[in-house]
Specification:
single chain; 584 residues; alpha+beta; two-stranded parallel sheet; 10% strand; SusD_RagB_dom
């Protein structure tokens, strides 16, 4: 009976999914309604799998809403590309409406995660003589909380149906009233969750440590959830849910459990967290596990989207010349280009450094794509500005030198062959209110090459595990909590731990980052951006620091109601359970 009721709930979600995406509809039918989900392991695998089926790995889902709406990223129309009815640039221009397909897809995928988590809870709870029942039930409840939290954050509402009650009515949780219960739910399952690496767990599973990170995140943003439209700031020092200290005390408590855990340590090479072989790295707490060699979808979007089409990691792959950062975010790095998190040159096995400054003649062809003899060209990492260099194609392969090395040349845009691939910090849209470039302007915008491009299979697949929570983010949360408690010395200590733990490449004698000597609100905000850019955190940060409503590049000053997105029109049409968010 419980399972049947969950299928009714899934039917509501499926009606919505059918409007926005046929493929999603088919996946939900197979994985949520299929009889194989009477097997609890299959059911919980489906709940985990939804994280990688677009939700947290595709640029047009959670990433798009959390990043394109901020100063860290925008996806402009570039000549004949990325127009798509204006849906992408609308997210940055703050002109989105309930019919925007980016919003709809994100809502559908998060709702599918909720549905699959509820199905997993029911399946595990109904299982007889199941050895892992307690652990799997806790993990399924944790996943439900994780999907629900992100839905409440972005949309202010989330559907729910009690999986333990037969004939339970459909409920719609509201962020301001649901956040306390969500925190209590995650705290309640803590005793039943495994510690990372115990009971065969890894960082792709919802462990105690993933729960600590989620709780710190929820407590940091609880004040925003409770008073989303405030024009006078947020009460970050409100009493915690259990009245034991304040919200910020709880952030400090849960982050400290992770910072003090010897399993975790900061990477000296910051970009190691985002390499294609980052599985199990010591800074990663909770990730979306990606593997090309499984039936699950994997996604290369976070690397693919910023790269120009003529930037080719292998003769088989290319970028798409789409996403860039804004002049505002790039300017926060002024005077800090020596920060190890700003950029990093690649060194080949024979000692050759790719300088990307016009001095490169060639690099060795000894680095090959996994499982093949196809040469692999490695672009530098971080924020890339100015003229770009790399290999060109000749007869289907890389152009080579006489001594069989990959020839390095000045690059020109694929769709405007007279236009150099010169990533300009300025954007200078012809209409300042619209993120639209002509074909003669498609090179504009500094690009973020934070994630390593995985050229093993194709543009759509990757082995990169996508960090959802990692230790560097946890230090930022604790630093902000200390700062909001007026403990600036402790906040600065955490920021300096991040700064000095990262080191530059051997080209610069492995020099560590430089500590700062003062910290105010603006510099803290900047420091958090240096550590967490491109990781789906910026929108929440901008709201907390009072930056989200301000005018910026291709974005007019906005009203507080834009701090959440509307419920998609397809969902409103499919069910009367939802009420549209204010002013939408």
């Amino acid at each position: 009976m419980k399972s049947l009721q969950l299928h009714k709930l899934a039917g509501i979600f499926l009606t919505v999914a059918m409007v926005g995406c046929t493929d999603l509809h088919e996946k939900v039918i197979d994985e949520v309604l299929g009889s194989n989900n009477s097997n609890p392991e299959n059911a919980i695998a489906a709940a985990y799998g939804q994280m990688g089926d677009g939700t947290f790995v595709d640029h047009g889902n959670v990433f798009g809403l959390q990043e394109y709406s901020t100063d860290e990223a925008l996806l402009p129309t570039r000549g004949s590309d990325w127009g798509d009815g204006g849906v992408w640039r609308a997210v940055h221009e703050f002109t989105w409406g309930p019919d925007n397909s980016v919003l709809t897809n994100t809502w559908n995928n998060l709702n599918s995660g909720i549905t699959k988590s509820l199905t997993a809870i029911s399946s595990v709870n109904n299982a007889q003589n199941f050895a892992n029942k307690t652990l799997f039930l806790a993990e399924a409840r944790g996943l439900l909380a994780f999907y629900t939290y992100h839905t409440l954050d972005l949309f202010g509402q989330a559907p729910y149906k009690n999986p333990f009650v037969a004939d339970a009515p459909l409920e719609v949780k509201k962020a301001d009233t649901a956040i306390n219960g969500l925190i209590k739910e995650v705290e309640a399952i803590l005793p039943d969750l495994a510690n990372l690496k115990e009971q065969n767990t890894h960082n792709g599973r919802f462990t105690k440590q993933a729960a600590y990170a989620l709780l710190a995140d929820m407590y940091m943003n609880r004040a925003v959830f409770k008073n989303r439209y405030s024009t006078s700031g947020f009460d970050f020092l409100e009493a915690a849910v259990d009245n034991n200290g304040t919200d910020m005390d709880k952030v400090i408590y849960y982050t400290s459990l992770l910072i003090d855990n010897p399993q975790f340590s900061l990477e000296s090479n910051y970009f190691r967290n985002f390499d294609i072989d980052n599985a199990g790295r010591p800074e990663l707490i909770f990730v979306v596990s990606q593997d090309i060699n499984t039936l699950r979808n994997s996604d290369n979007d976070f690397a693919y989207m910023p790269m120009e089409r003529n930037q080719k990691p292998s003769p088989l792959n290319r970028g798409t010349n789409a996403v860039c950062t804004t002049p505002e975010f790039y300017a926060t790095w002024d005077g800090k280009h020596d920060d190890p998190r700003f950029s990093r040159h690649y060194q080949y096995a024979d000692g050759t450094w790719f300088m990307n400054d016009g001095t490169d003649v060639s690099v060795p062809a000894t680095s090959t794509v996994v499982g093949s003899t196809v040469p692999w060209f490695h672009f530098n990492r971080g924020l890339l500005a100015g003229q770009q260099y790399g290999p060109k194609l000749l007869n289907g392969g890389f152009e080579m030198t006489a001594d069989n090395r990959i020839k390095v040349s000045m690059l020109y845009c694929e769709k405007n062959t007279a236009l150099p691939v010169d990533f300009t910090p300025e954007l200078n849209f012809d209409n300042p209110a619209q993120a639209v470039f002509t074909q003669a302007q498609i090179n504009r915008g500094v690009r973020i090459f934070k994630f390593e491009f995985d050229p093993e299979k194709d543009n759509g697949s990757s082995n990169v595990d996508i960090p959802l929570y990692r230790l560097g983010v946890i230090y930022c949360l604790r630093a902000e909590a200390y700062f909001r408690k007026s403990q600036s010395d402790l906040a600065m200590a955490d920021i300096n731990k991040l700064r000095t733990s990262r080191t530059r490449e051997a080209l610069y004698a492995n020099a560590p980052g430089v500590a700062i000597t003062t910290l105010d609100e603006q510099s803290l905000y900047n420091e958090i951006g240096y550590e967490t850019y491109w990781e789906m955190y910026r929108r929440k940060q901008m709201i907390r620091f009072g930056k989200f409503d301000a005018a910026g590049t291709a974005k007019a000053a906005s009203q507080p109601y834009r701090r959440i997105f509307p419920i998609p029109q397809s969902a409103m049409d499919a069910s009367k359970a939802f009420t549209q968010n204010d002013k939408y």
